[in-house]
Amino acid sequence: MDGIHDIGGMDGFGRMARDESVFHAPWERTAFALASSARMVGNTDDFRHAIERLDPAFYLGADYYGRWLGALEVRLRERDLIDSDEVDRRAGSAAARPRAIASAGLPTASPEGGPVRTIDRRPLYAVGQSVIARDLHPVGHTRLPRYVRGHHGTITRVHPAFVFPDTNAHGWGEDPQYVYAVQFAASHLWGAGDHSVSVDLFEPYLEAA
Amino acid sequence: MDGIHDIGGMDGFGRMARDESVFHAPWERTAFALASSARMVGNTDDFRHAIERLDPAFYLGADYYGRWLGALEVRLRERDLIDSDEVDRRAGSAAARPRAIASAGLPTASPEGGPVRTIDRRPLYAVGQSVIARDLHPVGHTRLPRYVRGHHGTITRVHPAFVFPDTNAHGWGEDPQYVYAVQFAASHLWGAGDHSVSVDLFEPYLEAA
Amino acid sequence: MTDHDHDHDPRALRAEALEAILIERGLVDPAVIDSTLDYFENDLGPMLGAQVVAKAWADPAFKRRLLDDGLGAIAELGLGGPQVDHLVVVENTPDVHNVVVCTLCSCYPWGLLGLPPAWYKSLAYRSRVVREPRNVLAEMGCELPDDIEVRVWDSSAEVRYFVLPERPNGTDGLPEDVLAEHVHRDQMIGVAR
Amino acid sequence: MTDHDHDHDPRALRAEALEAILIERGLVDPAVIDSTLDYFENDLGPMLGAQVVAKAWADPAFKRRLLDDGLGAIAELGLGGPQVDHLVVVENTPDVHNVVVCTLCSCYPWGLLGLPPAWYKSLAYRSRVVREPRNVLAEMGCELPDDIEVRVWDSSAEVRYFVLPERPNGTDGLPEDVLAEHVHRDQMIGVAR
User: Would you give the DSSP letter of residue D46?
Assistant: First the structure.
């Protein structure tokens, strides 16, 4: 989805504030612990997607762990493990119930082990090769940031294959794919800047330049 | 700027609600009237830009006239016509003071008449011609939506010349420019869809395809 | 929410504080506020656009002028007004449906339709209608057959767009003022046929 | 804001309600919550990354292995852990400065640096550092000379990036545990030199 989370390059968020806190309040610590340890079917990709699907105003208005707490409730609710009416009653407060758009599909199993996979084909691209980040707009979860779509870059590293978030977030299989570090010139991305930006892109996000 | 206001094509905002109200509450009516009639140096483009410069969480969390009220206060404050501390004191409430990033430049005069201008050159492009919307990321105000940048379209109408918002919003002159209705295929913009989207683009936003 | 609740809305308090300060400083004139609201709420509205549509339905020559030079044609009716500095009228046909949006803010032909309804200014409408107009229209009660071509107009500059709907069947011979009663605001935006 | 205020924060009340429900339903085990927090707050932290940096400074062969195969090299030190499924170590030199971000969420090598500080997760950092890294770093107190090349790494997949800072002058011959005290978390993210 082209969601509110995809903020790379956006203007308007103001200057850096040196806030060194990991948690601002005990409830953020609770939110982290609950989201990390609640038992349910699902995976990291569908958790990230639940965060992305939160109402955009809630997303921007909440702090990091506010989004975690919201996404946790959404995920539990979507699996019929809890009822937000009950949370409303217990919280006895004006705390807004997190709203989210529906997912294109929820995983029905949880993964074992990490996301790295060995696959029986060779990477399509090699270090030094020019590629274009495809201009894709999938309805579901993706890790292809808007700011690189349609732009030329150069492969600088070939990583191992990883579970593909675009399918795994929805229970459509792991479909592991090679990942590449693709380097883009800031001057191409933004029309200004002398730096480079390297983005890790899954093979299906790329085409040969 | 690549701001929060530029939401064409974004996912996550949910279903349509048939809210027919013009104003939801008397204060929205007041906000409209004040923003429409307060005397200060400035123009429509700098007003729109003040809305865009509002803190993104405020932008999404406020309703339409909440943004007008916020931008009005920002504009008056930036011209030293009011002091937000005084508004805080008078409002005697928890109403958040609107925050905004600074403008690249504020106009120092107000326009007379409408935005249409006669200029002594011919339009560069003609009906039927293929063009590309340039991939520009200006630091200031622009009316080039992100969703068409880098895409091919076809000129379907040549409009008159209009004051150029990208300069006028900042007091950098009117620099009038022809405007074109440029038609894009949804399938090119989004990878799906059988409709067309026509966007009015100023001549400097375009290049020949 | 009642008016009483609105009085305690912090945004209402901030609006009132700002209004008081602006009046004290002479930056707004209360009489101008009142006349502005009176003009927008009483003088403007979809009845103006409906008058244009009815005349176009009744008078083929006017319709041609309207499609050719929107601003010139409505000026014949004494119309124009705020946010109508240049006007393009797009015509619905059995094969084509037009719909208008402003994704960057909420530009709207105030001088022909009055101030826009909340849904037109909503984040959902602005974000979605350029991408999935058929779904948006269906959610608003307007199901378009697959074989109708949909054209979305994003009013990203100072041109304002106005949809000329198809004349309904069974309205032959009706006078313009009666025809105008058949025109709904939603048709002139393009979220109804 | 005091802890007392936090108790009345509606989000705190919602978090508590959710916690109570999850415990009642057996969906979380309070002992697991405690051990999770204990692990993240006490076992993990920038001291682990500092140990890696110190060893790379002290041991050229380790440094080569670290740059060649980050995960394999840190495993020699018994390190790895959550959010470090694949590791790429990028080296700062007199000519090159590296800085790490995750624009889409806030991916971070928890297993080497612990949980990230608020600024790393902030909308300002995520949005701006890919576009104007020199300004962002300057606002954080790190002015980079114009002739240093800046490389930004957006950890958009499951690869985690870790910056190997330059060894400071005057640290010749120091043992690794003392060298590690010279390493700050910000250097390993790349917002300090």
Answer: H
| 8 A C-beta contact, residue C41 and residue B64 | no
Q: Are strands C149-154 and B196-202 parallel, antiparallel or unpaired?
A: parallel
Beta bridge partners of A198: A183, D153
Residues 94 through 133 of chain A touching chain D, CB cutoff 8 Å: 94-96, 114-116
What does DSSP assign to residue A96?
P
**What's the rounded Cα separation, in Å, for the pair B156 and A199?**
38
**What is residue A145's three-state secondary structure?**
coil
Taking the C-alpha atoms of residue A38 and residue A54, their distance in angstroms, rounded to an integer, is: 19
Among all chains, which residue has been given the structure tokens 């048709």?
C187
pLDDT at residue B129 is higher than 80: yes
Q: Where are the alpha helices (DSSP H) in C59-132?
A: 60-68, 70-75, 110-113, 118-121, 123-128
Give A185's strand partners.
A196
Contacts of A18 (CB under 8 A, 6+ apart): D119, D140
Q: Is D105 a catalytic residue?
A: yes
Q: Enumerate the domain spans of chain D.
A: 10-189
pLDDT digits (tens, 9 = 90+) for D102-159: 999 999 999 999 999 999 999 999 999 999 999 999 999 999 999 999 999 999 999 9
The ipTM value here is: 0.96
Which chain B positions have a beta carbon within 8 Å of C40's beta carbon?
A: 32
Domain A1-98 belongs to what topology?
Cyclin A; domain 1 (1.10.472)
Q: What pLDDT is stored for residue D126 in this prediction?
A: 98
Name the architecture of domain D10-189. Alpha-Beta Complex (3.90)
Q: Which helix (H) or strand (E) holds C161?
A: strand C159-164
CB A160, CB A117: distance < 8 Å: yes
How many CB pairs below 8 Å do chains B and C form together?
A: 226
pLDDT digits (tens, 9 = 90+) for B145-174: 999 999 999 999 999 999 999 999 999 999
Cβ of residue B31 closer than 8 Å to a chain C Cβ: yes
Residue A93, pLDDT > 70, answer: no
Q: What is the pLDDT of residue A112?
A: 81
Stated as kind and residue range, the H or E segment containing B73 is helix B64-78
Residues on chain C touching B37 (C-beta within 8 angstroms): 28-29, 32-33, 36
State the span(s) of chain A assigned CATH 2.30.30.50: 116-208
Q: What is the pTM of this model?
A: 0.96
Our CA-based measurement puts residue A112 at a distance from the nearest CA of chain B, in whole angstroms, of: 30
Query: Does the pLDDT of residue C5 top 70, yes or no?
Result: no
Going by C-alpha positions, the residue among B74, B69, B143 that lies closest to residue B102 is B74
Classify domain A116-208 at the CATH class level: mainly beta
Rounded to 5 degrees, what angle do the CA atoms A165, A167, A173 make? 115
Where are any strands of DSSP class E within chain B?
116-117, 130-133, 152-162, 177-185, 196-202, 206-208
Q: Least CA distance to C157: which residue of chain B?
A: B200
Distance in angstroms (rounded) separating the CA atoms of residues B202 and B155? 12
Residues C43-67 have a mean pLDDT of: 98
